[in-house]
Amino acid sequence: MFNSVRFRITLWYAAALAVTLALFSLLVYHSLAKSLDENVDQLLAFRAEGVADALETYLQTERIEVGRASASAAKGGAFYKIAPELLKLHTDDPRQAAVDLRILDAGGRELGASGGRAAPELPERTLREALRGTAAYDTIRIADDEGTEEIFRSYATPASDPRGAVYIVQAYRSNYHTQFALRNLRLMMAALVPLIVLLTGAFGMFFARVALRPVADMARAMRQITAENLSLRLKPPRTRDEIRELADLFNAMLGRLEDSFLSERRLIQDVSHELKTPLTILKGELEVALKKARTAGEYAEVLQSNLEETEKLSRIVEGLLTLARFDNREVKLERAPMDLEALLRDIAGRLAGVAEKAGVKIALSAESPGLRADGDAGQLGRLFLNLLENAVKFSPRGGEVGVRVYSDGGRPAVKVSDSGAGIPLKDLPHIFKRFYRADSSRSSAGFGLGLAIAKSIADAHGAELEAGNQPAGGAVFTITFPG
Ligand SMILES: Nc1ncnc2c1ncn2[C@@H]1O[C@H](COP(=O)(O)OP(=O)(O)OP(=O)(O)O)[C@@H](O)[C@H]1O
Ligand SMILES: [Mg+2]
After folding, report:
1. Of the four, 285, 377, 384, 470, which is 20 to 30 A from 371 by CA?
2. Which ligand 1 atom is the nearest neighbour of the CA of 451?
């Protein structure tokens, strides 16, 4: 199960999802935290600046109304009383809750505060900045009596009196709410991300099982296929996907294997059969000869007949050996450009005696004299010998065998035609097979290896060897060499 594709796919998928979700959560968390902080900062500035504006307006009006610079006003006497009122006015609105405000004098002394609790004290540096006219943010920690720490965000901005005194307005807010919201979000993410990954993994596992079920079915079917029942086929899934393609390819491969397996079997059968006949004859003749004493002439006759059968046997074995060597690619071709017409003239010459005996004429014609093909003269000689031998063998007395050397669109080619009965259509697809003989020629001498060997030689040369019939009757074999 842990080694299954299904498990691995699910695992990778879940891991990728976990990483993606974690990154996404981090991003969401940080951008939320950032925007919450920014919101608080904006709110603090807005509130503090509002109060500072109101304060400045108040200080100005006060100066106009009082007219002369009274000593008490210079010390901010009236202002001390007004500061808490001012702050109250600005913090009464319940919608504006959670932000506390303070007004401090230049020394950092509190003149008024809206919050009931201990306020975060401004650091020295912020005080100095404010006196210089610059507003500043701070994050201030306060430990309460029980030792728990509370963090405040604070904004301090100066408000100046036309007479030159400077006051500081501080707006601050505990970040408790923000932290609370963020902590909730963290908890939710920590719980949800693994849950989502687990759920998706479970779904993934399920879907992978559904998607891969045909593979499991195929594996089960494959287990039943052995050499003895190569005719079994996988049932391809109804889908049109990769698995279907795999099943089809596997079935096609089985088909090819079955074909070659069957043809190997048939070959063994054919070989045994072909070898059996001459061996039976040999054995029979020898047994008869040994039954009683014979004259020297009778012995010679038996031996002569034995020799013929032995020759047949060795021809079969030799033919098979040649085919096996071609099959195993053991035959090394000694390629050289050779004159096709000269080669065929030589072969026709070798068959002249046989042809004359059979009363068949061999007519050689060359449309392109001197046409050369790249090949092994010895092997090609054998190929043409087999073709011409057949042509002579299957032509009636008085018939003619035509050999034509020509160029087929730049490719050297040779046609061997005869005036025999031709090849029955049903036999045409098989005649290059080993030991195949058309029924009508069963009685004729030969084992059905000649064309198989010719085909192997043609294949080794990359040439095409084709069999057909002429419209006027008689078989025709065409070999076309690569250009
Ligand atoms: N020119 C032809 N005319 C008619 N049939 C042919 C011709 N050449 C081949 N055949 C058919 O093809 C079969 C196979 O030919 P092939 O040359 O392989 O075998 P063979 O001539 O019977 O035996 P071998 O060549 O081994 O002596 C022949 O038995 C015959 O039926
Ligand atoms: Mg032959």
Report:
1. 470
2. 18
Does 166 lie in the same domain as 21? yes
The enclosing domain of 323 has a CATH number of: 1.10.287.130
- The parent domain of residue 307 ranges over 242-327
Same domain flag for 291 and 380: no
Indicate whether 390 and 277 sit together in one domain.
Answer: no
In a domain, 224, yes or no: no
pTM (2 decimals)? 0.61
Say whether both 38 and 176 belong to one domain. Answer: yes
Residue 437 Cβ contacting ligand 1 at under 6 Å: yes
CATH code, 96: 3.30.450.20
Q: Does residue 454's CB lie within 6 angstroms of at least one atom of ligand 1?
A: no
Q: Over the stretch 72-122, which tens digit does the pLDDT of each residue have? A: 444 455 666 677 777 777 766 665 557 889 999 888 888 888 877 778 899
CA of 449 to the centre of ligand 2 (A): 7
With respect to residue 17, please indicate whether it lies within any of the assigned structural domains: yes
**Phi, psi values for residue 167, rounded to 5°:** -115, 160
Q: Please give the distance, rounded to the nearest whole angstrom, from the Cα atom of residue 446 to the centre of ligand 2.
A: 6
Edge-to-edge strands, sheet with 110-113: 110-113, 100-105, 166-174, 149-160, 136-143
- Answer yes or no: is 47 within a domain: yes
21 and 40, same structural domain?
A: yes
What are the counts of helices (DSSP H) followed by strands (DSSP E) for the chain?
Answer: 11, 12
The CA 304 to ligand 1 mean position distance, Å, reads 27
DSSP structural state of residue 292: S
Long-range contacts of 140-145 (CB under 8 A, 24+ apart): 140/172, 142/118, 144/118
Q: How far apart are CA 69 and CA 71, in angstroms?
A: 6
Q: Does ligand 1 lie within 6 Å of residue 82's CB atom?
A: no
Q: Is the dihedral of CA 353, 354, 359, 360 positive or negative?
A: negative
Structural domains of the chain, count: 3
- What are the backbone angles phi and psi of residue 332, rounded to the nearest 5°? -95, 120
**Position 345 in a domain:** yes
- Alpha helix locations (H) across 232-351? 242-291, 296-327, 340-350
Ligand 1 atom closest to the CA of 448, numbered from 1: 19
Q: pLDDT tens digits for 250-290?
A: 999 999 999 989 888 988 998 998 899 899 999 999 999 99
